[in-house]
């Protein structure tokens, strides 16, 4: 089974943990509890293939930005989360994207943009309470990784026969 290292990034309070916990445990997180770093694993089926997702839910606050380069170096795909109620959180993603591209030193890196808090549409400035497209955010990222880095076929071990 292929394993995928996914990293969830975005400003503080945009709902990175709510998105991740909703996907992994199907629980909506009501209360905001700032994250330093949480790691989750979930086995899923994407396009008829079993996959093990290792999801890193990162801190959104400025005091933990020094850890970002390490997250970015180790991650295979990235979910960039912003709140549709805050234009500033959307604008912040340009800097995150540029940092990912610099750290990965690549022209293309698998990324998905996720607008969170869609249940607060009237505040407008996608919340995951409704679980609107939550699975698709993660599945689409797996598909992007598969396109960019196809799985290498397992090498058959050669057997030695001594007579």
From TrEMBL:
Single Gene Ontology MF annotation: GTP binding
Keyword Nucleotide-binding assigned: yes
Alphabetized Pfam families for the sequence: Ras
Swiss-Prot/TrEMBL GO biological process terms: signal transduction
One cellular component term from this protein's GO annotations in UniProt: membrane
SMART domains per UniProt: RAB, RAS, RHO
Alphabetized SUPFAM superfamilies for the sequence: P-loop containing nucleoside triphosphate hydrolases
Record's keyword terms, sorted: GTP-binding, Nucleotide-binding
Protein name (record): Ras-related protein O-Krev-like protein
Species this protein is from: Catenaria anguillulae PL171
């Amino acid at each position: 089974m292929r394993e995928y290292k996914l990293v969830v990034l975005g400003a503080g309070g945009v709902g990175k943990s709510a998105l991740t916990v909703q996907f992994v445990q199907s629980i909506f997180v009501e209360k905001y509890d700032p994250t330093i770093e949480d790691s989750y694993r979930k086995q899923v089926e994407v396009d008829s293939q079993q996959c093990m997702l290792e999801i890193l839910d990162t801190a959104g606050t400025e005091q933990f930005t020094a850890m970002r380069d390490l997250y970015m170096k180790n991650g295979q795909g990235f979910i960039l989360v912003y709140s549709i109620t805050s234009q500033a959180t959307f604008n912040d993603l340009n800097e995150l994207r540029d940092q990912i591209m610099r750290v990965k030193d690549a022209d293309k890196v698998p990324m998905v943009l996720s607008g969170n808090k869609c249940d607060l549409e009237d505040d407008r400035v996608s919340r995951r309470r409704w679980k609107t497209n939550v699975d698709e955010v993660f599945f689409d990222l797996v598909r992007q990784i598969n396109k960019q880095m196809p799985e290498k076929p397992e090498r058959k071990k050669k057997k030695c026969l001594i007579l």
